Amino acid sequence: MQIVKHPNPTSADERAKRMLDPGFGKVFTDHMVTIRWSEGQGWHDAQIGPRQPFQIDPAASVLHYAQEIFEGMKAYRSGNAVTLFRPLENAARFARSAERLAMPVLPDDLFIAAVEALVRTDADWIPDQDGASLYLRPFMFANESFLGVRAATEYMFCVIASPAGAYFKGGAKPVKLWVSDDYTRAAPGGTGAAKCGGNYAASLVAQQQAVAKGCDQVVFLDAAEHRWVEELGGMNMFFVFDDNTLRTPPLGTILPGITRASILILAAEQGLKVEQAPYDIDSWKADAASGRLKEAFACGTAAVVAAVGEIRWTGGEQLVGGGVEGPVTTALRDELTGIQRGSRDDRHNWRHTITL
Length: 356
Ligand code: PLP
Ligand code: COI
Hints:
Blueprint: E1 2-3, H1 12-19, E2 31-38, E3 42-50, H2 61-65, E4 68-70, E5 73-78, E6 81-85, H3 87-100, H4 108-121, E7 133-142, E8 154-164, E9 175-179, H5 197-212, E10 217-221, E11 229-232, E12 236-241, E13 245-248, H6 258-269, E14 273-276, H7 281-290, E15 293-300, E16 304-313, E17 316-319, H8 327-341, E18 351-354
Parallel strand pairs: 1-3, 9-10, 9-16, 13-14
Antiparallel strand pairs: 2-3, 2-8, 4-7, 5-6, 5-7, 6-18, 7-8, 10-11, 12-13, 12-15, 15-16, 16-17
Helix pairs in contact: 3-4
This protein binds pyridoxal-5'-phosphate (PLP) and 2-OXO-4-methylpentanoic acid.
């Protein structure tokens, strides 16, 4: 990978100022990775260069038909060590998203090398305050200038990085969820399991409704029966019952979250009965009211583990777990973040160390 250093990098003072309270997705590092793909040449021109705007033709197919996929992952600093969490899972999901969107597959080793190289180049931007990390956003888009509807013959892969704190403004406060009754996120045979921009575009109007109802995130139900809980706009869902069961909706039309997969393993180790099974919205409301449902939480790379304190829907609302975070949610978050940040035993070899 060719490395072209930024001629005018952010000063140490300015960087420290921006990293003090970065929020999520607003502060960016000085560099980015770009790798091009074309039908004739395959992957080529891999480089780290100054982070800068793309020059993009107005007919570039991504602007018209949304052929775009992305990933979300974090780099953590603990002492002198910098680590990623299960990055091969991100590489594998990126490859599956590419296949679903008829895009070229970036080999896993190139994906990892690109992410590692950016983390090394911009290592000064990895925050070390509690709960903060360097959020990494690998993505790929079609940039052939052509208006016919077919898979493009040219693509750009890119990785950018963003020092990040808590995803939700309220920090660790339990979140409120809005149950969307008129929009769905994904249908069987659609792109729900792929991490493509179009899924998020389709979720935004429902997310706006959620915000208008005083909620943090939208809950999507299945497209066929409009009954089964799928996931949130940007997170997977878990439910904790009074018989020590932890349930999460099955894979299929939802995004196969890496946090979700990790929690399933950690929860079983903590002695919970773990199940991937459908859960319907009427049961959620009734079980939250009766107390059979003890806790609910959402999880994802950006949000980590967020307790759900309340659900609202057209014509009603219901506290979940009394509106406060429960002990199972806390224990799972502590275990997951402990492994990610190196304070707990990494018995599954999930930490991927980057030598600076
Ligand atoms: N579901 C959706 C729709 C998401 O956008 C995300 C975030 O990436 C997740 C679930 C959680 O996935 P992960 O745990 O791999 O970040
Ligand atoms: C992530 O968790 O990495 C995502 O991509 C989800 C998005 C809500 C930021």
